[in-house]
Automatic annotation (TrEMBL):
<keyword id="KW-0969">Cilium</keyword>
<keyword id="KW-0282">Flagellum</keyword>
<dbReference type="InterPro" id="IPR002774">
    <property type="entry name" value="Flagellin_arc-type"/>
</dbReference>
<keyword id="KW-0966">Cell projection</keyword>
<protein>
    <submittedName>
        <fullName>Flagellar protein G</fullName>
    </submittedName>
</protein>
<dbReference type="Pfam" id="PF01917">
    <property type="entry name" value="Flagellin_arch-type"/>
</dbReference>
Length: 150
């Protein structure tokens, strides 16, 4: 009988060691998933707080034939302030990425506070007259589309 008890004790200890290993592995994996979810939620929270609306009137002539510039006005309708610099916004005009845009707060200042309007200007190199155009504005994940005619 003593031999049977020793074998059962060895199997019991082996089962405990295996169970502890599995529990340790699961705990570390749950921690990793939890950290990933926390990081993702911070990114999503930042995107939710950033929101913008194009307030320009498409019929008011956002394109200047003489300077070949497009000028639009955008209001910060999000919950957070944004820097008033070209790195804050991405622009695509008729599917082409726009570089060299200037971003200026209409009331002055360096920060684009909630409720403030910025003027975004960029050169186009010339747009054909009497044609429809599509401008896509992306501000920290928030996308707006603006259609206008030259």
């Amino acid at each position: 009988m003593a031999g049977g008890s020793a074998a059962e004790l060895i199997l019991f200890i082996a089962a405990i060691v295996i169970a502890a290993s599995v529990a340790g592995t699961l705990t570390s994996e749950v921690d990793r998933v939890s950290d990933a979810i926390s990081a993702q939620s911070l990114d999503v929270a930042g995107e939710i707080r950033a929101d913008a609306e194009i307030v320009s009137d498409p019929g008011a002539g956002v394109y200047n034939d003489t300077s070949e510039n497009v000028t639009i006005h955008v209001r910060n309708t999000g919950a957070s302030d944004l820097p008033a610099d070209p790195g804050t916004v991405d622009l695509l005009l008729d599917g082409e990425y726009v570089t060299g845009a200037t971003v200026t707060v209409v009331d002055g200042g360096d920060s684009w506070h909630r409720g403030d309007v910025v003027r975004i200007e960029f050169a186009t190199g010339g747009l054909a007259p009497d044609t429809d155009h599509r401008l896509k504005l992306v501000v920290r994940g928030d996308e707006e589309v603006f259609r206008f005619r030259t």
